[in-house]
Amino acid sequence: MKKINLSIDGMTCSACSNGLEKYLNKQKGISNATVNLVMANATIEYDEKLLNQEKIEEFVKEAGFKSLGEFKEIKIEEKNKKEKIKFIFFTILAILLMYISMGHMINLPVIPFLDPHTHTTNYMVTLLILTMCFMIYGFDIFKNGYKNLIHKTPNMDTLVGIGAITSLLYSIYNMYTVFRGNHHQVMNLYFESAAIVIYFIKLGRYIDGISKDKTKEAIQKLVKITPNTAVVKIDGIEKVVTLDEIHKGDIVVSKAGEKIAVDGEIIFGKAHLDESFITGESKPASKEVGNKVIAGSMNYDGYIEYKAERIGKESTISEIVRLVIEASNTKAPIAKVADVASGYFVPGVIAIAIITFIVYLLIGQNLETAITSFVSVLVVACPCSLGLATPLAIVVSEGLCASHSILIKKSEILENAQKVNTIVFDKTGTLTYGKLKIAEIINYSDIDEKNLLQLISSIESKSTHPIGKAFTDYVEQNKIQLLKVEEFENIAGYGITGKIENEKFILGNSKILEKYEINNKYLEDEKKLSENGNSIVYVVKNKEIIALIGVNDIIRDGTKEVIDTLNKNKIQTIMLTGDNKETAEKIAKDIGITKVISNVIPSEKAKTIKDLKQENKYVMMCGDGINDSPALASADIGVSINSGTDIAMDSSDVILTRNDLKSILNLIKISKKTIKNIKQNLFWAFFYNILMIPIAIGLLKPIGISINPMIASGAMVFSSITVILNALRLKNIKFE
Predict the structure, then answer these.
(1) Distance of alpha carbon 273 from alpha carbon 708, whole angstroms
(2) Structurally, how many domains does the chain consist of?
(3) Residues 426, 628, 636, 660: which is the catalytic one?
(4) 579 with 614, same domain?
């Protein structure tokens, strides 16, 4: 299966996006298609043996829309001067049209040569010409409405188009009867209704477009983090190039005050870099030869040369943007409620409008009343607000999360995070920094301590585990030469093995002793080391324990406050670790976690998560995203604390690039606020239609309440603006 993300033109409401989505999902070769109204794109998974991009774009065209090619980046379209002038021009025309058609009704001065009583022909022809200008202005509405009706996916444009054309044709008919001598019909022209409906729709879309663009600002800021140009070094000569001209392996130069252009590795120099946009760490990070750099980082004070490794779509920033866009293209379960409703809503409204028209004629009402009610029902029930209720809130929230270093891979996470009642934490690298250091050594052999650490460090240098980093750091600090290691093997959850000069060494926790059936005579020493908060590394040579190494870690800043907050909110916290019981319980006690599950291997971690879920707990697992992958996948929500450069490799649902556990509190908080906001939007969208459709039908005329098509179009725009403003309130959420 292959995946493609296409930009789609012509979608104006949820009925459009739902109709296109349904049409695409019916096509042979497409396994799944998701259409995003706010982002105006479609993510499609398809069988490349049966389809290609060209064929898929044909499907889009058949459904009544247009593909603008592959979705490459989020663009905030600025309204150009020409468009603004056009809109101002039609605003003036709308005011003029309203004045000519209705000014005399409220005793405003009448333009002499346009007086409907003395200059009837001038009056009617002027209204017709002005209205036809609006019909041309709204041609895209009629075109889209017709296409969607033909493809059996009627949408908002269909409703507006039918309503406006009905008003226009009825007014032209009455104009004809006036020319035939029926002069009182001059007061029954509804040209202004047809024109003002179009104007209000255009006004609504203008405001809607600006509002949608605002929801993308946080994501666009990420796109703009990287510089436009960079300096590369070719044969010792520096050359300024654009980012597109940089290739993998190129040597890029960064001087003080410049931004890093692409992800890479420093090969010369030293500097302090600001990586706060990824890590959230306000203090500049010291970088030297061998360290990685992330595109967009600011070089504060040094000169460095680095080798380009991840460019273009592979860069960390591009990966973040891709994740956010893909998340916005997934649908939260609550969004499907609105989708289903919209799918039935438009055909239902058309049916109600037709029934209203027929009933008015059957009960003896005149044609004017029947048509006015018919058009009012069509216009007032346009499902703009219903279509925006969920996706707009989701996109605002996801952009907000992205700007605060919380990357969400699926929209459903925003709905489900508020359900979490149990959070399981890995210890090393999650509750602690994972920057272990050698604290204590108990040597049972005749090998001197320096040589012993050389042997151990040589094997540990082959491992990616944080404990291995403690030994490699020791080697670097003490400038110890590493030995050649053969037959290295990593045994997940237990430890590692390797041969040095044909001698086999086994390094790991107490479980590795059981695995290799090695007698443990040093339980008391292990206990003493553990009571001091150390993680234990057993060193075995030829099935004999030759040393015990105690390494310890530092608890993350703010961890205790986060655990206290979760406990106060009645969310159970559990520590799940492969470390020994004594060490785990000491750290748990220090930070306020009451339940500890220790001495578990990765597969056992996953089983623990499944057992908790069987107890009807909604489980969030928070780990380092590497060793904890099985547990992260098993949890209802998997959250990894990760450095920015690991984003592309991560398999969890949520990535906290800030490496701060407070982000978990923020995720739960924004989830609650988002769902509350969506429910408010859906309530007002449904309430508006439930309230306005009966009024448009005329059921409240006996008590003096009624509307015409012009008022109906204004009310429809007001409902959409209400939903937009409510969704944008999410931007005011205060993060921890």
Answers:
(1) 63
(2) 5
(3) 426
(4) yes
